[in-house]
Cellulose binding domain-containing protein (Streptomyces sp. R39), 205 residues
Amino acid sequence: MRRSWERRQVTGTAVELEAVDGSNDVLSFVAPSAISSWTFDVMDFARQAVSRGLAQNNRYLTSVQAGFEPWQNGTGLAVTSFSSTVNKGSSGDPGGPGGSAACKVAYTTNVWQGGFTADVTVTNTSSTPVSGWKLAFTLPTGQQITSDWNANVSPSSGAVTASNVGYNEQITAGGQASFGFQGTYGGTFAKPSGFSLNGTACTTA
């Protein structure tokens, strides 16, 4: 069993994300200190699951289960009162999975026989900043990454994820983050067919 901790912003609130890989994969969002209320977008949780390969962006979200373990005055599960309100949004056509894109990706390459470099620019086209980002895409068959810069890209082939480094964690509304990598290829060179930022499909420039 593997356990990891990350700090994330979920709908403006700092939480600690615990990921446990075992017979069942579990993602837990834990407030680092006591809170009396919290308003959040359930899609923040769905995007975290997609970015870790635990869900797929081209599927519909049909149901949600939520629970709580409030601790008060020491060990135990107890509260004096509890209430919740769910906003289902507007009625009508739900649209396609993932909704409208809130990001745009420019993927520029320099190719030579057997090798290439890729410079990637991610633009946040939404009205809110992105704090902590992961760009997922699939390298065509035969391509392998040998080095990267301004992001941590792994694994080296197939379905890969580029994650921010410490100094470029946040992409402001309308802002950009850029990174790149060098790699090798066999056969005919091709570019990835699509990209998703924190689980949301992006358009391409």
